[in-house]
Amino acid sequence: MKLRINGNSIRLRLTPDEVENLSKGMKVGSSLDLINESLNYELIPGDIWNAEILGANISIFIPRTEVLGWAENSQVGFEHKFENGLLLLIEKDFQCLHPRKHEQEDHLYPNPNTH
């Protein structure tokens, strides 16, 4: 799972395996190992949209009803904006059109824009 924070928005991009697990009601997560600590982030099927941080852990909650069947359909993702302006984007992760030497992308969704 990729995490992108830009201003007051958080974008999570998920691999097919992560989308499959999420659509089955399982949480998915990853971590970033910094020099002195790890930043952990997770996406959890729940009852409502929510986002919270506790220490070095970011938890994003998405309604189960949103992700049920997501692995089997062509929907790219979900967007939710909170009253405070926080924007959440949850998306399937596609292979880049131009491969990067430092990234292995064969486990991602095929890019629909390749011909």
Describe this entry's structure for a reader.
This protein is mainly beta and 115 residues long. It has one domain: 2-Layer Sandwich (Gyrase A, domain 2), CATH 3.30.1360. Helix content is 10%, strand content 43%. It has helices at residues 16-23, 64-67; strands at 2-6, 9-14, 28-33, 38-46, 50-54, 57-63, 77-81, 87-92. A four-stranded mixed sheet has the order 1-2-8-7. Strand 5 (50-54) and strand 6 (57-63) form a beta hairpin. It starts with a strand and ends in a 23-residue tail after the last strand.
Short description:
By secondary structure, the protein is mainly beta. The chain is 10% helix and 43% strand.
How many distinct helices? 2
CATH topology: the name is Gyrase A, domain 2
| Unreliably modeled segments | none
The CATH class designation is Alpha Beta
* Structural domain tally: 1
Any idea what the shape is? globular
* Strand numbers in spatial order across the main sheet: 1-2-8-7
Number of strands: 8
Structural class: mainly beta
Estimate the mean pLDDT confidence: 87
Order of helices and strands: EEHEEEEHEE
Distance between the first and last residues' Cα: 26 Å
CATH architecture, by name, is 2-Layer Sandwich
Radius of gyration: 15 Å
Q: Tell me about the biggest sheet?
A: 4 strands, mixed
Helix fraction by DSSP (H/I, runs of at least 4): 10-25%
What portion of the residues fall into strands of 2 or more residues? Answer: 35-45%
